[in-house]
Amino acid sequence: MKILKKPEWLKVRLSGTEHFAATKKLIGEYGLNTVCRSALCPNLQECWSSGTATFLLLGDTCTRSCRFCAITTTTAQLPFPSIDEPRKIARAVTKMQLNHVVLTSVTRDDLPDGGSSAWAETIKAVREENPNVTIECLIPDFEGISEDLDRVMRLKPDVLNHNVETVPDLYDSVRPQADYFRSLEVLRIAKQAYDLRTKSGLMVGMGETEQQVKKVLDDLVGIGCNHLTIGQYLQPSLRHFPVHSYITPEKFDNYRKYALNAGFTNVQSGPYVRSSYHAADSV
Ligand code: SF4
Fold first, then answer.
1. Is the CB of 69 under 6 A from ligand 1?
2. 164 C-beta closer than 6 A to ligand 1
3. Is residue 11 part of a domain?
4. 39 in any annotated domain
5. Other beta carbons less than 10 A from residue 74's beta carbon
6. Which of 55, 102, 134, 272 is most buried, by the most CB atoms less than 10 A from its CB?
7. CA-to-CA distance for 204 and 213, rounded, in angstroms?
8. Which atom of ligand 1 is nearest to the CA of 65?
């Protein structure tokens, strides 16, 4: 497929500040992973400059291989997650004086509990050190295993986020180890069984139709999902899934209006929007 030229509205905005440098130093000192860096997020400068970051739990290597994702993946044996990670993340949250933190992780289908115990330990450690901080958990699907989902959801994070990422017809091509309906079920359980504020998101520009996107939004509203993010898919490297089209800012605005009309209470929709973009607005 021909590589599309980036349109004007997707020019990278750089704004390194003192805060950016301090955040970078702190994350390096604690040996932590952030999804900002691992997933080559286009908002890294903006977020780090304002003192926010999304921490990546369970290492920096994923056992799945989504074709849009910049995170390193493997089928080889991975080490067990570091037992120090929860405490280090909690300490970094304190040092960064965050009011709101986003936790996410790679998918670890190799671990007996999918990494859910490490998730729970991290939530507890962050709260212990920072009782007033609000927490958004952007979780993997834990293969839909209810014990693993329960380990995280019963701790009642302020926002439970799980991305559907794309429309169901594209799952086989870009997310072969995931299942759209399993992802919906994760969000349904979070809402119905735990009464959590839920959030999901998807990328556009991978070949989906407008009708398919709207159907996903309707599905999410149908299971009580509160918040939504929609952003432009950007190809991390030549070996990743190609960009099919660049969606115009006007179309993003139409999606935002459609989503708000459908019933979402907070919608971030735009070329640069990523899952954690302006995450504090979701609380
Ligand atoms: S499961 Fe998540 S982290 Fe792993 S490859 Fe897919 S999108 Fe990336």
1. yes
2. no
3. no
4. yes
5. 12
6. 102
7. 8
8. 5
Q: Which domain holds residue 134?
A: 16-282
With the most atoms of ligand 1 within 8 angstroms of its CB, the residue from 38, 69, 183, 241 to mutate is: 69
Measured in whole angstroms, the distance separating CA 158 from the mean position of its chain's CA atoms is 15
Mean pLDDT split into 10-residue runs, the chain, 283 residues:
78 63 78 73 68 84 94 91 94 89 95 97 97 95 98 98 98 97 98 98 98 98 98 93 96 98 97 81 71
22's tokens: 């301090």
Task: Using the mean position of ligand 1's atoms as its centre, give its distance from the Cα of residue 72 in Å.
Answer: 9
pTM over 0.85? The answer is yes
Question: Domain count of the chain?
Answer: 1
Is residue 105 within 6 Å of ligand 1 at its C-beta? no
What is the CA(32)–ligand 1 centre distance, in A? 18
Residue nearest to atom 3 of ligand 1 (CA): 106
Query: How far is Cα 14 from Cα 73, in angstroms, rounded to an integer?
Result: 28
